[in-house]
Amino acid sequence: MVNTRSSKEVSKSSCQLQRKLDLVKTKEPEPIDPIKISSKRRSTASLSLDGLLTPKNEDTDHTLMMQTDIHIPEKRTLVDDPLWRGNAVGKEVKELLEAVEHHYPNTFQRVQIRVKPFWSAILEGFHATIKRFMGTSVDALTVDQIASLQEDLNELEGFKFDLSWALKRLDIVDRLKFGNEPLQKELMALEDSLDPLKATVDMRWKQLMEARDMYKREVLEYENAIDARNKKTQEMEQMFGADFDRVLKSHLGFGLLPGY
Predict the structure, then answer these.
(1) What confidence tens digit (pLDDT) does each residue in 108-145 have?
(2) pLDDT per residue over 211-248, tens digit each?
(3) Region (Disordered) spans which residues (predicted)?
(4) Which of 19, 75, 84, 197 has the least CB density, counted as fewest CB within 10 Å?
(5) What is the model's pTM?
(6) HSE (side-chain half, CA atoms, 13 Å) at 182
(7) Which one, of 80, 78, 132, lies nearest residue 101 by Cα?
(8) b or e along 100-138 (b: 16 or more beta carbons within 10 Å of the residue's beta carbon)?
(9) Main-chain dihedrals φ then ψ at residue 101, nearest 5 degrees
(10) Could you please report the per-residue DSSP string of 93-107?
């Protein structure tokens, strides 16, 4: 009896175990989706980077202050700088000094300019003299003005400025306007002789144009006469034959009996 019961229990246990195994075999595992896994990983990484790049508790007032505290200096040109060789001379004076230095570089080569108020005053005087020199009209220039400008330029040359270019121009104007230059007299004499010569040339040109017009008229009349003669000759040939003119200049039998 005992053995029979044990056999039944063992058989029952075996059946239950077999059912569990069948259930395990029939239940398939859930497939793994790599796209979902990758998406989850990207979302996680994105959240992590956002946390690193975005500052927490950002102080907007501090950021604005940092932006507005940045100062960009204005661009300045050399002309805007009132200093010339370290001396405060002002914009207008500096422009003239730079123009002179550009066109006549020898002007300042011998000058030992130092950064002192003394030199600022000298440079301002240089500016005043050169500006007066440049703006003086030659037509209204007088002998006294030339002498005054020469004196001022010579004073500046005492400070080692080379103003030979300005003194040379003054000398030229003085000699040509107030001097007694032989070349100037010869030039003026030639200038005076041009007017009558020009009048003669104009007269001859007028005569030439009139003669040309007369020549054209005569040529036209001649050509018209030739045309009229040719037309009249054609009429004569049609009426009397092509040899009518030779008959009149020969004998009666001209061309009628060749050989006689």
Answers:
(1) 999 888 888 888 899 999 999 999 999 999 998 999 99
(2) 999 999 999 999 999 999 999 999 988 888 888 888 78
(3) 1-21
(4) 75
(5) 0.47
(6) 0
(7) 78
(8) beeeeeebbeebebeeeeebbebbbebbebbeebeebee
(9) -65, -35
(10) HHHHHHHHHHH-GGG
Q: Please state, for a pLDDT cut of 90, what percent of the chain lies above it.
A: 43
